Amino acid sequence: MLRYFSISLGIIGLFLITQPLFPQSAKNSSTKPSNSPHLVKVETLTLQPFSVAANYLGQLRAKRMLRVYTQEAGRLIFFPYDLGDQVKPGQQLAGLEDTLLQAELTKALAIQQQAEIKRERLEKLFKKQLVAEDSLLEAQTTEIIAGAEVEILKTRIGYTKIYVPFEGIIVERRVELGDIVSNQTHILTLIDPNSLVIELAASEYFLSQLYLKQPVEVHIEALENTSFKGTITRLPPTIHETTRLGQLEITLTPLPKGALAGQTVQVTFQTQSQSRLAVPYQALRQDQKGEYVWVLEETKQVRKQVVRSGLQLADRVEIVEGLQAGQLIVTKGFLGLEPDKIVKVTD
To answer: Is residue 120 helix, strand or coil?
Structure first.
């Protein structure tokens, strides 16, 4: 038994001697780092002609609109028109009760007549040198004041009746027949349906590409899929300091049937062809500091170039600041790129 045990120990010892005490070092087992260059694709910047097509949403608005206010206080005794009613010039829109004003006018006329009689009597006496000139002047002044009071009351009575100034449609009714209204009360709104124009807001940069009488294509969502022709009739004189947008006006020629104020429209603009610097969309990068592109230098090194983009032109983006024609920009191979890194250009 002891013999067999000794043989087993011998075999185990032989096995331990033949095996290394430590595994091969990590240096021998690891792979050597690759020295292959960083591959990128580049593009040479050139000025290219581009025309921009852009869609903007706007709204139809009546350019000719009248908010009707009262110029006298009183009870509405005539107010026949409702929303959607068509009215023509000269028709009476509203009437206020004028009983009190008519009574005041009667009184003023009587005072005026009395002043006139007194003035005529004093003129006869003055010719006979029976009254002083001051008395005659006072009588003449009193007559003028009385006449002015009559004219004031006639004007106020005229304010109790409101007439239509132009052919239009009632789009807002704010009071009802029999209501007692105060002076300067907004009672209704009237628009001219033939004066509809499109108003929309566009960016300051895009507005610089437009011009007066420029043709545009208009689609009114409520009128199915029909397209209409329009022209730019007004460009904004100022830009909003916060939104950096400007309001422009477009006139439809002719005005389509079924067009109503307040409808949403889509306007398609086609700008004139201009030479622009543009980079592929994927070449424009962005970080916390803003937009940039990778530029390849003659030393085969890359660097970050801060830029300012403009319009999106299909699959490209206009660069309005930061680059020049002839520069090489990286279009592919961004992963792992760092400033001053040496790269190799591949096709």
So the answer is: helix
